[in-house]
Write the structure tokens for this entry.
Amino acid sequence: MAENIRVRYAPSPTGEPHIGNVRTALFNWLFARHHGGKFIVRIEDTDQQRLVPGAIDVILDSLSWLNIDWDEGPRVGGPYGPYVQSEKLSVYRQLAQTLIDEGKAYRCYCTRERLAQVREEQQRSKVDIRYDGHCRHLSPEESRNLEAQGAPSVVRFAMPASGVTGLHDLIRGDVEWRNELLDDFIILKSDGFPTYHLAVVADDHSMEISHVLRAEEWLPSTPRHLQLNYALGYSPPAFGHLPVIFGPDRAKLSKRHGAIPLLEYRDKGYLPEALGNFMLLLGWALDDKTEIMSLQTVVESFSLEGVTKSSAIFDREKLDWMNGVYIRQLSPEELAHRMLPYLERDLPGELLPVDVDYLGRIAPLIQERIKLLSESAAMTAYFFEDLPEYDPSSLVQKGMEREGALEALRAALEQLTHTGSFEHEPMEELLRAVGERLGLSPRQFFGTLRFAVTGRTATPPLFETMEVLGRDRVLRRIQTAIQRLSENQGDDQQ
Ligand code: GLU
């Protein structure tokens, strides 16, 4: 593409962004990076009633967590600022005034009551509900009088009453709207703030945005934006509307199916690269089979031709599967590094701080099984606990007596106290022989031993676990198990 590519993500800070919002950011970012263009973040905060304090930070943090970086915008600045719409109200007011002066917009003094009445009548006569253009035809004198009386007003755009507005959408193809069906929408509100329509057109122009890639829900607004561009003498950017994301039930994506704040995915233990890959496939495909693609490699191949026209389906199981794939691709050191914040969050305070070298040896043991990083503490707590808590009777495996379990533990203790190496292979060989000598099946002997050293019935391979736990912990835990089981037996006899 020869021209300068400049695209933007233009969130309204009305809450925490969820996957649908950030998917838009991702596609814009990929488009910019693919073409060597600029990716801009602009905050559209002109609807003051809907502002949520702190939302801007959450939006920016969500992008940063996914490694989506921006060239211009809040936190980084840039030559086209300010990047927050509420900081440039005078620009929009000036534009509205210019449109009024040129007869392309007008002040509307209609009261709420009048508008409600018009709506009711339209409802009754079953015609489309829209502003009836009453103030478009006020004489200059009538307007002057209303102004003199101090009547509050908004500014409406004078939509062409006939003809069609056409768009060649880069994703959806040709779309046309009959102008007579579009109403004289408000561009400046009575509080002096512009509406989204005016601000978006003004900023896309002043920031020299070349392509507007946004969710399909904005498609009905596009003829308004095009007409505003024409009225202001701008040449509009190219538009592409991204497919809607549905839940597995084919309904609008609900909370239950994934429309949760993006950072909750982080808290639940998804890797940003897995979520990025997953979001990419919500409306884009490289071919009909490739699923695992890092965003870095997709930068090379990303194009709007790959955007699907049909709606995208959010499939949580696929996301979980993908997260597992990405977890298994990490080096053990990297996995340990990723697990650390979750352990710091979830382990009881007395087990902190986590010994990072020790964690580096634990991580590979669970790498095959962990699906979400938020499982880190539950899956590894017994490595950090001083002595795992458990019901001693669980040390006794099926088909064994307490005495047998005690004998097994004593024999293991004896063997492990005197063995030279604590590496898993020789240790396993030695203990297998002990089990056989005692006439126990591996399930019984190793079951008792596993429970004694971890307090769990299911763990990563026992001898590798013991090797990582180390001689001191293992011996102490077996001694404690012997003690607990002996005491437990006493209790039983009472
Ligand atoms: N501020 C709009 C939003 O919150 C942006 C729409 C657009 O990209 O034009 O989604």
